[in-house]
């Protein structure tokens, strides 16, 4: 009987994670498809380097606004309803961008899609984390990031397959997963932790009993939620001294996830490689290889965050990203963009993608959803998402300009230095959250034991 309940609980949490993570698929598809569509858009709309960056960056600005606005909505109306609102925005934005006939309409449509992406990035990881059991939380939350990179990979395949068709088809296909997300969320339960925060203890108990192996597990977890329960905290509490370690760890990873250059590669890889001498088809195929590498790295990361731990995964993989970027910059510096040199560049890009995506990109939404106390989790995760999208906006608006001013070599060497700084940051400030309940992590913040072991030992010495 207990085994049957465990199987049912696992199946339901898996189903919840899969449907909710469709928001990640849309996130990835709508951000990734621009890299292929740009090759047509800049010809049809006579885009300059600056206007290319505006069209690309519009979705990021929307995401920045969307993640900020999603926090109060998710706290007031619940995680599930907020995801449904994001799905409606995805549907609206997809329709507008598909039928856009001016640069202004294109930019406005990308802003609407950005609002949906920002809301999804803020709330879906929280929703999955609050429903998942501690021992499976890492894998299930990383399902969101896996869906993101799968969406990016699909966008690259779509861009290549539709390279001789209209860019409108590239954008219009996003309507399908948006519909799945909206309809699927209708049938999913609310977050038990959000329900408890609203005082609906019996409803929270019913949901926990459905997603945990035994009623005893559910009761223990519910009691932990009640014991840790606080009133919804105001925004100023995010800066309280006892919360600061969570702020530093989660926001730091969010900033590094973008400043280390991964989306610069995603958005502009076809353009950069096309300008370096690759044919348009070859440049698009390079993006497909990048997308496949991201998907494989994220799938591996979904296993590693629970097997190795979040912190260990980042510390082991980031040095590989540094080396890959140094090699890539060297190829640009010596002008080796043909023959063997071109293949070395492709391998370096793929390796960088594996090491960076498999570490920081896997950890960002997971650690962000884990470390904030329940009373400020919505606003805290909003801050994480805003940091991520703010940094992404800076990168998307400056990458082509950096390549023009610094060259490919200078740009990628700069990103290599930032990846190295990221390793030092993780070593110093990011604790291990593997296998710990959300309430245990909150308790460690309150009693001052949240910092990494290495940091505590160095301070003691």
TrEMBL record:
TM stretches of this protein: 12-34, 54-71, 83-103, 109-128, 140-161, 167-188, 246-269, 281-305, 317-336, 342-368, 380-400, 412-430
Tagged with keyword Transmembrane helix: yes
InterPro entries documented for this protein: MFS_dom, MFS_sugar_transport-like, MFS_trans_sf, Myo-inositol_Transporter, Sugar/inositol_transpt, Sugar_transporter_CS
A Pfam family of this chain: Sugar_tr
Keywords attached to this entry: Cell membrane, Membrane, Sugar transport, Transmembrane, Transmembrane helix, Transport
Molecular functions (GO terms): transmembrane transporter activity
Entry's localization field: Cell membrane
Residues annotated as domain Major facilitator superfamily (MFS) profile: 16-434
Main location: membrane
Membrane topology category: Multi-pass membrane protein
GO cellular component: plasma membrane
Presence of the UniProt keyword NAD in the record: no
Domain of life: Bacteria
Family: Belongs to the major facilitator superfamily. Sugar transporter (TC 2.A.1.1) family.
Name the UniProt record assigns to this protein: Sugar porter family MFS transporter
Organism, as annotated: Brytella acorum
Lineage: Bacteria, Pseudomonadati, Pseudomonadota, Alphaproteobacteria, Acetobacterales
């Amino acid at each position: 009987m207990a085994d049957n309940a465990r199987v049912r609980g696992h199946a339901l949490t898996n189903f919840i994670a899969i449907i909710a993570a469709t928001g990640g698929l849309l996130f990835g598809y709508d951000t990734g498809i621009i890299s292929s569509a740009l090759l047509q858009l800049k010809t049809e709309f006579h885009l300059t380097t600056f206007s290319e960056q505006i069209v690309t960056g519009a979705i990021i600005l929307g995401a920045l606004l969307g993640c900020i606005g999603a926090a109060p909505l998710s706290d007031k109306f619940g995680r599930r309803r907020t995801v449904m609102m994001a799905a409606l925005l995805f549907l609206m934005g997809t329709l507008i961008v598909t039928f856009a006939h001016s640069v202004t309409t294109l930019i406005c449509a990308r802003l609407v899609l950005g609002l949906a992406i920002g809301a999804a990035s803020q709330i879906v990881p929280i929703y999955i984390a609050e429903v998942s059991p501690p021992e499976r939380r890492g894998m299930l939350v990383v399902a969101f990031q896996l869906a993101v990179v799968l969406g990016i990979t699909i966008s690259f395949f779509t861009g290549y397959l539709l390279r001789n068709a209209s860019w409108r088809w590239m954008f219009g296909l996003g309507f399908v997963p948006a519909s799945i997300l909206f309809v699927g969320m209708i049938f999913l339960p609310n977050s038990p932790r959000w329900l408890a925060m609203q005082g609906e203890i019996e409803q929270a108990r019913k949901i926990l009993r459905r997603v945990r192996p035994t009623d005893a597990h559910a009761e223990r977890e519910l009691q932990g939620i009640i014991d840790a329960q606080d009133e919804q905290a105001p925004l100023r509490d995010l800066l309280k001294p006892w919360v600061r370690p969570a702020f530093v760890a989660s926001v730091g990873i969010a900033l590094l996830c973008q400043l280390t250059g991964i989306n610069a590669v995603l958005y502009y890889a076809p353009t950069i490689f096309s300008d370096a001498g690759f044919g348009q088809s070859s440049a698009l195929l390079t993006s497909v290889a990048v997308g496949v590498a991201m998907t494989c790295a994220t799938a591996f990361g979904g296993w590693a965050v629970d097997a190795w731990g979040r912190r260990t995964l980042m510390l082991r993989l980031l040095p590989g990203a540094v080396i890959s970027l140094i090699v890539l910059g060297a190829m640009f510096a010596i002008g080796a963009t043909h023959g063997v040199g071109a293949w070395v560049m492709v391998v370096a890009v793929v390796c960088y993608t594996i090491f960076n995506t498999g570490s920081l990109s896997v950890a960002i939404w997971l650690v962000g959803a884990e470390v904030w106390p329940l009373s400020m989790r919505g606003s805290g995760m909003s801050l994480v998402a805003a940091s991520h999208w703010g940094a992404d906006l800076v990168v998307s608006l400056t990458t082509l300009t950096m390549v023009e001013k610094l060259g490919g070599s200078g740009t990628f060497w700069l990103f290599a230095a930032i990846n190295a700084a990221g390793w030092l940051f993780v070593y110093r400030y990011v604790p291990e959250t593997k296998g710990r309940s959300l309430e245990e992590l909150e308790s460690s913040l309150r009693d001052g034991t949240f910092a990494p072991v290495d940091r505590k030992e160095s301070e003691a010495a």
